[in-house]
Amino acid sequence: MSVNLVLGGARSGKSRRAEQIARGFGGDRVYLATSEPFDDEMRQRVALHRADRDAHGWITVEEPLALAETLAAQAEPGRAILVECLTTWLGNLMHHERDVAAACADLLAALETVSGHVILVGTEVGLGIVPENALARRFRDHAGRLHQDIARIADRVELVVAGLPVVVKG
């Protein structure tokens, strides 16, 4: 069992890097997608990503909220599970007014016990200015705490900048 955390900014190449890591494990590959499309543009993006994953042998599981439970259900020895993406999942939790702290605690507990390989992708949102509004600040704070908590238990952490992975841990 291994846990990999891949962080980066928007369009940094973090998803491509996470996919590369997952392919390196061999065996089944599950793409656990957390996106919940709310508009036509996002629905179109999801459809394109789904078709691309299907064409490349991924098993796609879409779950916008129950991440810990779905991760536990999909985990198997030798299987690689790519979670795309933590920050989208956090936004979903906030949008649906779920208990973010409890959901994050459940995810961390699941990561401690699942078998197989887990690669988690997160957008690093804390490198810019302090957000202007309280909701955005709460989102940034949740993301920062979650990334730190996962980094503590992860075997490897990478930050992707301009398509180049920088090893932070491991």
Task: Describe the overall structure.
The protein is an alpha/beta fold and 170 residues long. The protein has a single domain, classed as P-loop containing nucleotide triphosphate hydrolases (Rossmann fold, 3-Layer(aba) Sandwich), CATH 3.40.50.300. It is built from six helices and seven strands. Strand 2, helix 2 (40-55) and strand 3 (59-62) form a beta-alpha-beta unit. The chain is globular, with a radius of gyration of 15 Å. The mean pLDDT is 93.
Give me a quick take on this structure.
By secondary structure, the chain is of the alpha/beta class. The chain has helices spanning 14-24, 40-55, 67-74, 86-95, 100-113, 134-153; strands at 2-8, 29-33, 59-62, 80-84, 117-123, 156-161, 164-169. The model has no long low-confidence stretch (mean pLDDT 93).
Quickly name the level 1 CATH class: Alpha Beta
Largest sheet: 7 strands, mixed
CATH H-level homologous superfamily name: P-loop containing nucleotide triphosphate hydrolases
CATH architecture: 3-Layer(aba) Sandwich
Uncertain residue ranges: none
Total strands: the figure is 7
Task: Estimate the helix proportion, in percent.
Answer: 40-55%
Distance between the termini: 14 Å
